[in-house]
Write a structure and sequence with these properties.
The chain is of the alpha+beta class. The protein has two domains: 157 residues, Alpha-Beta Plaits, CATH 3.30.70; 47 residues, SH3 type barrels. It is 41% helix and 26% strand. The chain has seven helices and 13 strands. The strands form three sheets. It has a six-stranded mixed sheet, sandwiched between helices. The chain has a five-stranded antiparallel sheet with strand order 12-11-10-9-13, with no helix packed on it. Helix 2 packs antiparallel against helix 3 and helix 3 crosses helix 4. The longest helix has 33 residues. The radius of gyration is 38 Å and the shape is elongated. The relative contact order is 0.10. About 2% of the residues have low confidence.
Length: 279
Amino acid sequence: MATKYFGLEQAKTDFLTKFYQREYLDLFLENILLESRLNKREFCLAVVDLDHFKRINDRFGHVFGDEILKYFCSTLRLTLTNTRHTSFRYGGDEFVVVFQEKNSKEAYRLLRKFSYNLSRRPFLMHNRFYRVTSSSGIACFPNDATTPDELVKMADSAAYFSKRNGRNLTTMSRKIKYLRLRNNFLAVCCLLSILWSSYRLYRAMNIFIDPAFKKIRNVRVTLKPEYLDVLVLKNGAFLEGRILAETDDRIIFSIYLKSGEGNSVFHKSEIAQIKRRSR
């Protein structure tokens, strides 16, 4: 339920969302801060942002975008029906919700419930359902900040953190440092895991592939010559290549292979026939 005090008795609401206009936020926060200090009570401020709203506007047009905003705000209003809160339209797709007498954990649970309701209540337009998500950040008085500007700034930074880390998230301002450390730690662990896997793959290649390369280390890549000599061995093998040198009992033969060329020595007793190609 929205409260009608702290200077909002005559305040105007936004015609589209029915939330209070931004110009009344500063006066409201000054009054609620004063009341909270006097009664030693805490309250929380949340910045709630509609994800990918610019993309929605660019793709479907501003009329469609306005309907999305109405749906978004009606879902937020229904979620917070039985909660003391006050909502403001802070920007185009950005809203500020002030939770009276709520701590950060209670505000967090309410905003996660809102995100859940968005997912369970898809937006229907022209007989088609559209999934909408939100990113939000929370800052509380007096634990996180003690002035209106600081509260808004810290909650906005927390909402930005939610967007940067995947959207559809709610982040408490006080936990940003911890979350950054956790994310950095996970990134380092992921990098180490990749390096370890790469090292194991390298070792495997050395164990199984390197010996094969050693066997063909004398093979060199070459183009197939136009004229090749042919050795027909007594075992039936048929070899193409070039005779490099010949003695009374041996022949040094450069064998042509599809992958290159390699040298080998044959005893003439192994050879059934030599076919010499004319150049």
